[in-house]
Every structure is written in C-alpha cells, then in structure tokens.
Amino acid sequence: MKKQGKTILEYTLLIILACIFIFPLLWMIFSSMKPEEAIYVDMSSIKALLPSLHPSDWLETYKTLFARFNVPQYILNSIVYAVVITVGSTVVNAMAGYAFAKFEFRGKKFLFGLLLILLIVPVETIIITQFTVVHTLGILNTRLAVVLPMMANMFFIYLFRNFFMAVPDEIIESVKLDGANYWTIFWKIMLPMSKPAVATVGTLSFIASWNDYLWPLMVLTDTEKFPLQVAITNINTTQPVYTNQVMAILTISTIPLIIVYIVAQKYILQGLGGSGTGIK
Amino acid sequence: MNTNKRENIAAYSFLTPAFVLLGLFLIIPSILAIYYAFTDYYLLTPDKRQFIGIGNFIEIFKDPIFLQSLKNIIIFVVFVIPIQVGTALGLALLINKQRKGNMLFKVAYFSPVVLSLVVISVLWLYLLNPSEGLINTILVNIGLDPQPFLSSPDQAMLTIVLVSAWQGAGYQMLIFLAGLQNIPSSVYEAGKIDGVNKWQNFFHITLPLLKPTSILIMITTLISAFKLIIQPMVMTQGGPMNSTITPVYYIYQTGFSDRLIGYSSAMTVVFGIVIGIITLIQHKATKEDETQ
Predict the structure, then answer these.
(1) pTM of the predicted protein model
(2) Which Pfam family would be a valid example here (chain B) (predicted)?
C-alpha cells in the first residue's frame, strides 16, 4: 500500500515536470495550427495546447506565411549553409586530423601546440575583428562569408586525430605497397574506419550551423540570403506581426532539428566529452 | 630523405585548408583584437587610426554600461549554474529507474534542447507577454498576480536565467544519466550489506561518484553562460534600463552597431582573457578526470 502511494507520487511529479518542459513546444506547434483570434480565445483553457478543431485550419497559417514571406528561400538557404558547412567541416578537419595522426613532419609539435592554444580562444568574443577580416577579404554579404568561418574547428581536428591514431599502421602500409597514395588512404581507409567520428562531427556541425544566428546576421544584408534563424527575427519584427505566423516559422525551423536529434541521438552527447572519446 | 620530404609535403597539404581557415578567422582576428585594443580605430575612418596606449582599457572600466554588463553576467552565472545543473541532476535521478513510460518522460525533459536559442527567445517572448501571454493567463487563473517579467528591470535577468535553464537542463540530464549508469551496482550492493539507508546512499555513494561529471558540467555551463548574448539580444535588447546587457552583447553593440572597433576590442581582450583562463581550468579538470 505504502509502495503504491509512493509510485503515484512519483508519477505525479514526473508528469508535472514533463508538462513544464514540453508545454511551450506544444503551444508553439499548435498555435501555428489555428486562426490568430483562436490563440487568445483558447488561452485560458486546455485548448491552448490543442490545434484548431477544424483540420482545414491547420495549414491556413502556413499558406498565408508563405504568401507574405519567401519562406522556401529561407529554408533552402539554411539547408545549403548547413550542408556545405557539415561536409566542409568534416573533410577539412579530418584532413588535418589525419596529418597529425599519421605523419611525421617538421613543425608538428609547434602546430599541434598552436592548436591546443587556439582551443582556449573564446570565438564569440572576437566577432568584431572576424567581421573586419571578412570586410577586408571583400566577401561581406556573400554566402561564402556565412560558411567559411564555421568550417575549421580545433575540437574536431583533435577528435579526428584521436580516432585516426587508432587505425593500425599495418593496414596503411599494406595498401601503400599496393600503390595507394595518401589521398586514397585518407578516403578509402581513414574515413571509412572512423565512422563514429565522421558522424559526430557531421551532426554537431549541422546543428551548430542550423542554429547560427549572430554571424549571418552580421555579414548578410540581402534578405534573400538569410538563413531561417535570421528570417525568424525578421518576420517577428515585420508589421503586421501575427502570433500564429511567428509560431509557424518557429515550427518550420525546428522540424529539421527534431529529425537530426532522433536520427543521430547517440552522437549528440559526445559534444561535451561525456563518453570519453577524447573531445575536450 | 626522399620519402621524408614527400611525407612533409603530403602532411602540409593535408593541413593547409584547416590552418588557412583557422588563420583567417581565428588567429588573425585574435591578434587584430589585441592590436586594435590599443588604437582608436573607428570603422569608417580607418586612415585616422592612431595608437593610444592603454586609453581604451582605462575608458572601459569607467564605462557604466560595461560595468553593468559585468555585474549582469555575474548575476546570470550565479543563478543559472545551480538552477540548471541542479534541475539536470534532479531529473537524471528521477529518471534513472526502470518504470513504465520512462522513455516518454525523458523525451519530454529533453524536448527544449532541440529548439535553437533564437526559437526559445522568440517563443518565450510570446509566452511571457505581460498582458496576453500564456504564463500570466495561467497565473491569474490560479489566483496569483500577473508579473511584468521581461519588462521589469528587477525580473528581466532572472527570467532569462529560467528560460536558459529550461532549455539547457535536458541535455545535461543525459550526461548525468550516463554518469549514473557508469556507477557499478556492486558499489550499492556493498552499501546495502553495510546497512546504508537511502539518503546515505545518495550523499556518500552517488554524489561523490558523480563529482567528475558534475565538475565537467558546471565548468562547461560556466563558460557558455559567460558568453550569453542571443537571449537578451532577441528578448530585451539589453533592457529594461540595461538590466540584461551582457559583455559579449556590449562588445557587439559598440563594435558592430557603433563601429568603435578599438574600444570594443579592449573589452574583447579583457573579457576574452577571463573566459580563456576558465577554459584552461576546465581542460586541467577534465585531464585529471581522465587520469582517475
């Protein structure tokens, strides 16, 4: 009897907490699926966390939003930035990781030390001089300015190096005897044998670039180059502002992340070095 | 000798893309920030740039907004760390048990993590609207007074603390959970034989064994908390009455909006060094954790 009471108490607590954590997400999604007036009418009842009772209303907001703003363009921009950054960062950082793991070259110690020193530079504080560099390079307001600074990453180089060091030298030597060059070894041996590293770096790069806001906001002036995150604040400040339309753009920008978190969940935690893969 | 040379060339060609990019967007900007900090560089008149010694450094510490931003970030950090990490630990302990529906609860607690900082900021801006937001509607319905939240200088920063903790706790819950599951059950069994009760169990077995995980989580939270910018930028624009302006946000405002590159760089140097030192400590702490 006592035990049963405890179970009920536990479940009550778990459910209350679950409500606190998930209600904003539900309100966001379902407010986008009802007419503007209904959001405020429903506010005092449980209907606030339900979509419109008429399924024909569900996509209405999205239709109006797409008619007012070039949302497909923003979606495409975000996808292009995220894909280019994900692929670029995987290749660029893996290449550097390969050099540190499997080559003996002059200046190796110095460059690796430099890498470790760069790990402590807080990137967020140097945005202004990053901006002046991009300004000097003459690539302000280009898509290149959005993607280039997001690619090279010390953590990812370090992660790849650790994974590549575990690839046995005998395998590399044997394919070398078959006439493979370094580039072939990199593509055909190193990368395929380090799939968890590739998946981790790919997932983390994708999420970081999809969520990036400040940097694209600084370097882009043309609306048609905006990624979704910047478009959100743009839509949220373009009069007239409708709550349901804002919730619709928030929902649209969140859907790809939900998919990524479901598909790649086992790689997400590694970002904090939680599983001893060596990222620090 | 020949193969050695070939290996050198190959290594450098593999390193080039990464180091060119790091050079352009990390090394050069860092050096420039240090250099500009000692000049009066104004973006629109680059030719008139002059070396002014430590003038900027003296000025920033007389700047009431910069001092306010330092005070604000300390308030943020002091509140967000115990609230967020404590919530994460609590959730992990609750969920670390075999029961029906556990997976659903885990998903619910984790759900805010998938929202970007811009999304949570805009979303909560609506939820916290003083006159017609959902939160005040709920407060009024259960008989409480509506609150001004983000429009009050007293409540704005604490509101941002709660929103940030709500967003981040789920991720740290998973890390704690991994830490909890790494504790071998034999330890608890040994405790059982010694007649240890539940609370002793928690304070003398679970908590000490979670210490490395907790330290790692606290320091990483500390570092990212110090860099707070998106939430105040989107939710309050630093207001009301500068109560939510943060150092990184002020660096952005002076450097980007006001184009005072020199002045802004001085703050970058000061604040960057502070965060750099904390990061160094973190690396030390995690290294020790590894050797344990």
Answers:
(1) 0.92
(2) BPD_transp_1
